[in-house]
Design goal:
The protein is of the alpha/beta class and 212 residues long. The protein has a single domain (5-209), classed as Alanine racemase (TIM Barrel, Alpha-Beta Barrel). It has nine helices and eight strands. The chain has helices at 5-17, 32-40, 51-64, 81-87, 97-108, 133-146, 165-177, 191-196, 206-209, and strands at residues 22-26, 45-48, 69-72, 90-94, 115-119, 150-155, 182-184, 201-204. It has an eight-stranded parallel beta sheet. Helix 2 (32-40) links the parallel strand 1 (22-26) and strand 2. It starts with a helix and ends with a helix.
Length: 212
């Protein structure tokens, strides 16, 4: 049975490595009873992969707990952008001009402003989403200056094979080059390496929700 012990262990590990890193607890497929335990423990940042699941699960929770911040960390199709805009506070997967234009249009008709991470295809893997490094600078400028989006940082998922440190270092370098202060990188298996290399947000689910 799930307990809060795993969460406390992970949180202590993160805080030992850095006081500037925010833990985003990934709650895809998790029951509300488990989520409520974390909310009761004063955790407020949560991540979801799918827009529809997030809307069904979090709409009432956010109404009851306005301090909650919901992060979209899974691939976003353009036809789901409007629904994502309504429920999420952070988008970690901004990776194409079509999506950026949709969000810009939605924000122009709303008081709501989302915080965006540009997803970078840091390993240049054809099967993965993300902006190619060679096009990153141009895309960031377009989003910030032309579309007026609040791009706060970069996000990546490094290749499964190999040492993730080189990819985290590279993402940190790209963020500095583009005057961005936030880095969304690191998951259950590599969050310590990510934090050492400057991650300000880590996305952890399985290591927290594993059964003891």
């Amino acid at each position: 049975m799930f307990s809060i012990k795993n969460y406390n262990y992970i949180l202590n590990c993160i805080q030992t490595l850095s006081k500037k890193t925010t833990l985003v607890v990934v709650t895809k497929s998790q029951e509300l009873s488990k989520i409520n335990l974390l909310i009761d423990a004063n955790h407020f940042h949560f991540g979801e992969n799918k827009v529809q699941e997030a809307s069904l699960k979090w709409k009432n929770l956010i109404l009851k707990n306005p301090q909650l911040k919901l992060h979209l960390i899974g691939k976003l199709q353009s036809n789901k952008a409007k629904d994502a805009f309504e429920i999420f506070h952070y988008i970690h997967v901004l990776d194409n001009e079509k999506l950026a234009k949709i969000f810009s249009s939605l924000e122009s008709n709303s008081l709501k402003k989302i915080k965006y991470f540009v997803q970078v295809n840091i390993g240049n893997e054809p099967q993965k989403n993300g902006i190619n490094i060679s096009k990153l600078n141009q895309f960031i400028k377009y989003c910030i200056y032309d579309l007026k989006l609040n791009v706060i940082g970069l996000m990546c998922i490094p290749p499964i094979v190999g040492d993730p440190n080189q990819y985290f270092k590279n993402l940190a370098k790209l963020a500095i080059e583009n005057n961005l202060s936030e880095l969304s990188m690191g998951m259950s298996n590599d969050y310590e390496s990510a934090i050492i290399n400057g991650a300000t947000f880590v996305r952890i689910g399985s290591k927290i929700f594993r059964e003891n």
